[in-house]
User: Fold these one by one.
Assistant:
Number 1:
Amino acid sequence: MSDAAARLPIVVLISGTGSNLRSIAERVADGTLAVEIRAVVSDKPDAKGLAWAAGHGIATVALPPRDYPDRAAFDRALADTVAGFAPGLVVLAGFMRILGDEFVDRFAGRLVNIHPSLLPKYRGLHTHRRVLEAGDREHGASVHFVTRELDGGPVVLQARVPVRDSDDESTLAAKVLAEEHVIYPECIGWFATGRLRMQDGAAYLDGRRLDTPVVRAARGTAHD
Ligand code: GAR
C-alpha cells in the first residue's frame, strides 16, 4: 500500500460534519485502506468537514446550489467537478442533496452511499426518529451502490445496533454513526481491492451476487 499508484482515487461528497470522511481518512493514514482521497466536494461552503479536509491538505471544492440557475445546472457542475479529479469511486458521506439521473448515470457502478437505516427500511430523512416511533428493536446503517432510485440501490454491507428503551434520537444516531465509521471504510476497501462491483443493478462480492447484504452486528457482540 505504500505504492501510491496502487491506490484507488476517490472523491468524497459531504454536506456537514464529515465524521465518515474522517473515518475514511484515518484508515488511509493507518495504511489499512488503499485509496487516495483526491478531493472533498460539498454543496455547503461552511460544512465542517470541508474545513477539516482543507486543514489536512486535501483539495476541497464548495459548490453552493444557489450559484446555479436550476438543479440540472448544479448537477452538471457537480458532476464535472467530481470528474475533474478522475475518481475511481465517488463516495457520498452525508451528502444531503438528491442527485439527478444524469449524475448517477455518469458514475454508475462507482458511486456509493451510506445511509442511517437498515435499508430497505426507512429511506429518506429522520431515520432515527422513525425507528423510535415504530418501536423497532433494531436499527443500523447500510452501504449501498447508488442508482436512480433514492436510497434504493443494491445494499452491500449493513451494521445492526440494538434499540434500547433508554434510547432517544441522539443516542441512537451516535450508536449508528459509530458503526458507520467501521463499515464504510471496510466496504470502500472491498471496492478498492477489486472484490466488490456492481453489474446489471446487482452487487457482487468476490464474484458472488449479493442477494442479501453482508451484515455486521454491533461491535462487541457476535456477528450473525
Ligand atoms: C451519517 O449518519 C450518514 O449516514 C447520513 O448523514 C450522516 C453524516 O454524518 N447520511 C444520510 O442521511 C444520507 N441520506 P457525517 O457528516 O458526520 O459523516
Number 2:
Amino acid sequence: MHPKKIVTVIGARPQFIKASAVSACLADSGQLREVVVHTGQHFDPNMSAVFFAELGMDKPAYQCDIHGGGHGEMTGRMLNEIEKILLAERPDAVLVYGDTNSTLAGALAAAKLQVPVAHVEAGLRSFNMAMPEEINRILTDRVSRWLFTPTDGAAAHLAREGVDDSRIHPVGDVMFDVALHHGARTGSDGGMLGSLGNQRGISAGRYCLATVHRAESTDHPQRLAAIVDALTRFAREIPVVWPLHPRTRAVLARAGRLNALAQALVLVEPLGYLDMVQLEKHAALIATDSGGVQKEAFFYGVPCVTLRDETEWRELIEAGWNRLAPPVEATAVLAALRASLGTQGRKIAPYGAGDAASRIVRRLASELQG
Ligand code: UDP
C-alpha cells in the first residue's frame, strides 16, 4: 500500500508538544507519511528547539522564519509560504493544532487548494471574539474536514454550530497523552527544582508556579499590573516561580517593572517541557493564563487559578480544580490565589483515555486509504 502524505503545520510551543504525540503515531503507522512545516512563529531555542530535542521529534522538513509584525502580516506571510510548500508537496491532508496564527494559515492555505484539513483540539470556544485565538479556532474549524475534539464540551459546541456529525471525532486530548508519557519521567530530585532548591531555597510542595503570555494579559497595562501586583503580594506568603515568556518579559521591561519583580519573585527563562512538568507536578498552586498549563495542573492534581475572564476548559472550574480570577483588580486576584491554596477538586476524567494521538492517526489512515 502506498503511504498517503500528511503535511503538518506547527509553529508555537504548545503545538510542538501536541504534535510530538501524533507524529510518533504517524511514524509508526506505516500507512501515512508526515512532512512537518515549522512556520517560525516561536523561534527562540527555549521556545522551540528544546521541545524537538526533549520530545524526540525529527527536525522539521521545512523551517520558515516568520514571526513578529501584526496578526495580518504574520498570517499573510505564512499563507504565502505554506501555499508554496503545499503546491510542491501535494499532500493528501494537512494537519493543524490549536488556535495560533500558524493554525489558521495552515488551514486556510490547504482549504483554498482543496486539500482536506484535520484540526486537532477542535471545538474549543471562549465566546470572546476579542481573543485572536478565538478567531483562529472558529475559522479553522469552519474549513476543516476532520474535527478532533478533546472534550464532550468541544464536540457539543460544534454540534450547536451546525457541524455535521460525520466531521466531529471525539478522541480526547493529545496533551493528556503527552502528560501520561512524559509526566511519569520526572521526579522531584535534580532538574530545575533541584537547581532552584540550591540557588533560591525552593522546595517541593511549597511554591506557586506562574505563567503569563496571552495578548489579553500583556497588551493591557492595567490587567498586567493586576497580575503582577497580586503575584508580588502573594510572594510574601509563598515563593512564586515565574518562567517568563519572551513577550511578557519585553512588556515588563518596557514598563520598567522587571527589576523590582526579580527581587520579589523567582523569575526564570522559559523552561523545557520536562523542567516545566517537574515544576508543575510539585507546585502547591499554579497561576496561569495558559490553556495547556490549566490542564496540566489538573493532570498532576495541583489547584489552579486562571488569570483570565473565562476559560475554554469549563469542566475544571465545575469540578473545583480551577478558579477564574479576572485580572481586573489585584486584591481580588490575591484573594483567589489564597483561597485556592490547599484545595482539591472532584475526581473527573474529561480528557479521554490518553490514546487521542493513536485514534487520530487511525481515523486519518482509514479515511485516506479507504
Ligand atoms: N510550557 C513549557 N515551558 C514553559 C511554559 C510552558 O514547556 O516555560 C509548556 C506547558 O507545560 C504546556 C505548554 O507549554 O504544555 C503550554 O503552552 P502555552 O502556555 O505557551 O500556550 P497555550 O497552552 O496557552 O496555548
Number 3:
Amino acid sequence: MELGIRVRFAPSPTGSLHIGGARTALFNYLFARAGGGRLVLRLEDTDFERHIPGAEEGIIQSLRWLGIDWDEGPDVGGPYGPYRQSERLDIYRREAGRLLAAGLAYKCYCTPEELAAEREKARKAGRAPRYNGRCRELTEAEQAAKAAAGMKFALRLKVPATGQTVVEDLIHGPVVFENATLDDFIIMKSNGVPTYNFACVVDDATMGITHVIRAEEHLSNTPKQILIFRALGYALPVYAHVPMILAPDRAKLSKRHGATGVEEFRAQGYLPEALFNYLALLGWSPGDEREILSREEIIRDFSLTAVSKHAAIYDLQKLTWLNSQYMNALPLERLLELALPFFKAAELVGETLVPGEREYVLRVLETVRSRARTLVELADMACYFFRDDFTYDPKGVQKFFTAPGVPELLRAGKETLARVENFGLAETEAAYRELIAARGISGGMLIHPTRLALTGRTVGPGLFDIIVLLGKERCLERLEKAAAWIEENAVRK
Ligand code: GLU
C-alpha cells in the first residue's frame, strides 16, 4: 500500500515545549500539510527517570495553542497506535527478538562496572569510548553459563567494523560516517526497555514514516538508526535535519536569553499567529522579502529544500515586531478572544462579559492596539478604560499638574464637556478648542493635564478618542477628582 507522506513529531515528556521543539513540530506540520500528508504525534516516554508528570499535556496544549494539529497521536488515536512508546514495549521486544534470532544482535552480559572501567581506560588513553565487543565472541557454552547464573544482559547491534554509513540528508546533502567510529551499541537495556535509537527506528518503520524531520543534534544518531533499519529489513525514510537555533551571541539558546518556552511566550502576551510566523522563518524563508506570512501562505510556499543548513539566530526584537504587526492586523474578534484572559487576569473584566461589555471591549481594543506590542502591554494600556483606581504618573504630575490654576482649568474643561450634548469626537474636540481659544492658552496647557486626569498617564491614544470612549459621566467625574486631588495634595512647582 502506498502511504503518501507520513511525518512525525516525537517529543519526550521531560519538560515543556521549547521553541526548538516547536519549530521542529512546525516544520513537520508544514511539510505534511503542504504535501497532503499525515502528521503523527508520538510520545517518546521510555526515559522513566526524566519523565515529568503533566509534561505530555503541557506539550499538547502548547502545540494546539500554536495552531499545530496532528492526524494521529496518543490523544486522537489512529491506525498505527499506540502512540506512546511506554505502551509499545512488546513491539520493541518482538523486533529485537528478530535481530537476535537472525544473529544481527547479541546479548551483552558486561556489568555497568566493567563498562565504566573500559570507558575510563579509553579516556586515559585519549581514545573515544567504544564498546570492546567482548560479548560478541561469547561461545554458546559461555552464554549458557551466564544465563544459568541469572546474569542480566542488554542487547547490542552488530555494527560492521569497516565501511561507511551515508546519511542522504535533504537539507545537508550526503553526510558520511565511518562505521569504525561506531561501536556495537545497545538497542535493548537489561531492564527490557529499548534505547532511544532502537525505539525510534522501530516506530518510524512500523508507523510508516516516510520523512524524518528533526533537530540537527540528532544527525549523529542517524547512522546508527540507518544500521538498525537495515538490520530489521525496513525501507529507510528520507532524513531532513533542521538547523540549530542559536542566541544572538551565537551561544546555545538557554534561560539566560530570556523566554524560550512556548508557554512563556504565551504568558508574556505573544500571539500564536505571530509565533507561528516567526518559527517558520527560523531556518526557512519564502525566497523573497516577505516576512509577514499567513498560515495558508506558509503552507503553500514551504519546502524542506529551502531550509538553510546554517544555524538560525533567535531574535526577540523581530518576534516582538511581528507580534505588534499581528496585534494590528488581526480581526478584532480574534484579538478579543486572545486578549480576554489577560484582561481577566488584570481584573479589567469579570469571568463573563455582561451585556454590552463586549462591544465596549472591542472599541477599547481598536483604540489602543496600535500602541501595544504584546497582550500584556495591551491590558496595561487598556487599564483606565475599565478601572478608576489608577494613580497619576509622578513625572506627569510634576509636568502638568503643578502650574497655577490647573484645578480651575480642569473644572472649566469639565463644565465644557458637560454642555456637549452629542458626545462624539468632533463635538468634544470643538468644545475643547473653543475653551482653549477663549482662554488664549496653548492647546497643550489644557490637553496634557486633561489626559493625565482621565488616564493617569502622559501618553496614549488621541485624547478625544479616550474622552468619547470613557463617556461623559466618567470624564466629568475624573476631571473633578483630579482637580480635588491636586488641591488636596497642594502640588506646587
Ligand atoms: N524524542 C526525541 C527528542 O525529543 C526525538 C528525536 C527524533 O525526532 O527522532 O529529541
Number 4:
Amino acid sequence: MNDPIGVFDSGVGGLTVAREIMRQLPGESLIYFGDTARVPYGSKSRKTVCKYSRQIANFLLTKQVKAIVIACNTASALAREELEELVDVPVIDVVRPGARMAAETTKNKRIGILGTESTIKSGIYEEYLHQIDPEITVVSKACPLFVPLVEEGLIEDRVTEDIVGRYLHDMKEYEIDSLVLGCTHYPLLRGVIGREMGESVRLVNPAYETAKSLKEMLREKNLFAAPGNRASHRYFVSDGVEKFISFANAVLPCHVSETTVVDIESY
Ligand code: DGL
C-alpha cells in the first residue's frame, strides 16, 4: 500500500525520528508535520497537548496516511491513548519503543530517563518500564534547557557542556547503566551527554526502536509500500518555513526544498 505515513512533532525535533524511518524504510513516503507555531509542547498541559495532537491527526488524515507516528515524546506521553481512539489507522508512539529498548539494554536494572517537564511529570516511562520489569529502578530528570540549545544550534558548545553537567550531576550518583534520551532533540546532544555520563552508560535513542516498531506493524498489517515504490516526502509546518528547511537539511539524508504552512487551528 503506497499511501504515506504521517509523522508529527511539536516542531523540528521529530525529524530525528523521520530520519530513522527513512533509513529503515526507504520505500515508504512520509508526510511530516512540525507544529513550529506552537512549540514547545514540553511545558504544556495534557489538555493542550491533546488538543494540538488531535488537530494534527485530523490534518494528517486528510492526506490519506496509512499510519501515524507520534514522533514527539511529550505528545506520545500525554496524547497517545486519545489519538488511538480518534483515528482508524495504526498509531505508533516513541515512548513504548524507547522503554522497551532501555529494558533490553540495562544489565544492572538501573535506568535514567531524560525528557521535557511534561514527559517526566507524566511518569509514563516508569509506568512502561515497571510493566516490563517491576524490579527496574528509574531515575528521571527534566532538562528544559536542552531543546532551546539544540534549536539555537549550540550542539558542541561550552554553554551546552555546562548545562548538561548541571542537569546530569545528580543522576551520576545512581549508578545507572542506561540512559533514555526521551525527547526528540536530545539525540543531537548525545556527544556531550555521552562524555558527561562516561562509557559505562549506554545511551538509548527511542527513534531507532520506533522505526523498528513501525516496520513490524507494517509487516503484521500488510501495509508495506509495493517493492520498487519511489518514496516521496512532503513537509508541513504551522510557521517558520525557513528555519524548518535549514534544520531539516542539517538532519535528514535527503534534500528539503519546499515546506507548506498549514492553518492547523482550523482542523
Ligand atoms: N518534541 C518534544 C519532545 O520530544 C520536545 C520539544 C517540545 O518541548 O515541544 O518531547
